[in-house]
Amino acid sequence: MMLAKISTLSYDFAIVKQDNEKDALTLLKGSSISVVLISAIILIVALVLFLFFPGNFYVVKLNYFILVVPFSVLLFGLYQVLRQWMNWQKKYGKIGKSLLYKSGVAESSKVLFGFLKFSQYGLIAGRVLGEFCIFIYMLLQMKADQIQQTKNMSWKRTVELLKTNYKFPLYTMPSGMNGMLLNLILFSLFAKYFGLDKAGIIGIAITYIGAAYGIVSQSFSQVFYKKINELENHQIWASLKTNVGILAMMSFAALVVVQLIPENWILTVLGEKWIGFTPVLKAIMISLSLGFIYVSVQFIFVRLNRQKEILILDFINLILVVGSIVGGYIMTNDFIQTLYLYVVAQSLFYISALLMAFVFAWKSKG
User: Fold this and answer.
1) Are the C-beta atoms of 298 and 243 separated by less than 8 Å?
2) pLDDT tens digits for 307-340?
3) How many other CB atoms are found less than 10 A from the CB of residue 1?
4) What is the pTM of this model?
5) Are 339 and 321 in contact (CB under 8 A)?
6) Are 185 and 60 in contact (CB under 8 A)?
7) Which residue from 39, 112, 193, 366 has the least number of CB within 10 angstroms?
8) Helices (H) and strands (E) in the chain, counts
């Protein structure tokens, strides 16, 4: 997933900011070339590892599946580019259908491979088949003249637009990578200090909440991103205030519901092995609820050309997360107390980021 997101160099997000179809298609071409080139580099690396270093790296124990990685990056990277093109065209229904098709194909493939007694291959094969399916679906949504127009775009104009939108690979891409790095650090540190079981409980809690929040925030953010790019600067503050208010009500309602769930209900449904899951779920829900609001409107920084500022805040967040977990372990040596310190650190980041968004939106009013 990380490699696929890197492959576009975040130029796919620049597509939505364009004022006319020609420039949007030109950036679609530039983004697609980036995906193809990076996928080719990954393929070369995978071949070198596979052919010349067998057994030297644990990852090559996946055998031939390491060769699937570049193709997965290619398919999902191109899908991301096409999805932002659909976002520019306001074809939100098509985007929604693509996600349903991906899930349907991926899950069906897992079941099929399990039925055929090859369940160990089902996860990887399902993912690749799902990505292939949504790529083809998105490609078919483009009109023939649009595809031809994209092919005929001049290299000079493509390079010119890529240079103009330099902030996307310079600031937006590292910011996205930082988010994935934070999750890795979270699980690694909790596993190191409190064991794999505790880290696993956090992972499950985040998965359950993140799945629900993620579907809504992903859909909301792409619509929000397109709409604010159509607004004048003086209109952005009011739009941000309205949307954050809606998201806050949704988030608060979900937070209250989770906090009111009795632990015995969860144990009745999931079994006694889940003792200790409820306190973690209720704690992590606090920061994830704030994160849901932030993630849904974070494209406000892109619209206002403030990617550099949010990247700086992301790195501060990285320090806060590491400091809260390490500090919690040193000071308390208690899992729950350390978890709450982490929740406080994350909550401070989300609140600070939202406040920054409002400040920048207010300044844009002139």
Assistant:
1) no
2) 888 888 889 999 999 999 999 999 999 999 999 9
3) 10
4) 0.83
5) no
6) no
7) 366
8) 17, 0
